[in-house]
Amino acid sequence: MNSRVTLAGVAIVAALLATAGAATAFTSGGAPVQTQPAQENMSDTITVGASGQVQAQADRAVVRVGVVATGDDIETVREQLSSNASQMRSALNEIGIDSSQIRTGYYDISTNRRYGGGQSEEPEYRAVHSFSITVEDPDSVGEVIDTAVTNGANEVDGVEFTLSSDKREELRQEALTEAMDTARGEASTIAGAEDLTITGVDRVSTTEYHSRPYAVEASAMAGDGGGTSIDSGPVTVSASVNVVYEASSD
User: Fold this and answer.
1) How far apart are CA 110 and CA 157, in angstroms?
2) Average pLDDT rounded to a whole number, residues 184-200
3) Long-range own/partner contacts, residues 29-37 (CB < 8 A, 24 or more apart)
4) Which residue of 28, 32, 160, 169 has the lowest C-beta tally within 10 Å?
């Protein structure tokens, strides 16, 4: 009878230890001996931030011009402004610039009031209508400026050489590839210094994307005699990434 009780007690102890996830062995005397479970392999991670940058020639340009009219009669000023702006638009249409490529950037009619009865030689009213003109062929920027200036525009505020959406996305992908290559190289160097081996990528995030157009100020546009000549420079596209790499001991 006592033998049965002892065996039942041993069975209960064994069941409890198995539920706790521990391995148990018994001596000949029935006393339990605790053993440690096998430890799982732990992986290390290496986090690297890197950036990539590529350049390409612009395939688009934005020209900023303004039509200005002044005078002492507001209606005359407004009509002159409207007439010059319409003339400029029509002339640009004739050289292949569609109306959708010409957008208003700013419109204002202001007054130079003569307070206190003082005299001023400046016209009482000044009206400004500025435009941004998108040019699909950067080589034709000079012709666009000349056409605008000889047909109503009397201010040139500058030119930005930039990229079309498709070209910008293409360069962004190249910049990301360069950033990832740089990140991989840095992670491998760090791993080697710590006797680790890169085994995979845990996660990746892009932290920055930037497109820097090439700008030309108005003062740099004047040609010697003849028409306006402008040379475009490269457009820079950059991208940054954060990468967490998995690594293990050699």
Assistant:
1) 19
2) 93
3) 30/6
4) 28
CA 243 – CA 177 distance, rounded (Å): 13
217 or 14: which leads in pLDDT: 217
Q: What percent of the chain has pLDDT over 90?
A: 64
Q: Which neighbouring-strand residues pair with 129?
A: 67, 107
What are the CA-CA distances from residue 115 to residues 110, 120, 121, 127, 219 (Å)?
Answer: 15, 10, 14, 20, 35
DSSP state of 38: P
Helix axes 141-149, 74-94, angle to 10 degrees: 150
Distance, first Cα to last Cα, the chain: 59
User: CB neighbours of 140 closer than 8 A, spacing ≥ 6?
Assistant: 95, 96
Q: How far, in Å, CA of 222 to CA of 160, rounded?
A: 16
Instruction: Report how far residue 6's alpha carbon sits from residue 43's, in angstroms, rounded to the nearest whole number.
Output: 45
Residue 154 has pLDDT above 80, yes or no: yes
The letter for the amino acid at 127 is A
Where does the chain have alpha helices with state H? 2-19, 74-94, 141-149, 165-193
Cα separation, 77 vs 38, whole angstroms: 90
Q: Considering the entire predicted model, what is its pTM?
A: 0.69
The CA-atom distances, in angstroms, between 137 and each of 12, 145, 202 are 87, 13, 44
The whole-angstrom separation of Cα 45 and Cα 102 is 53
Alpha carbon distance 15, 179 (integer Å):
56
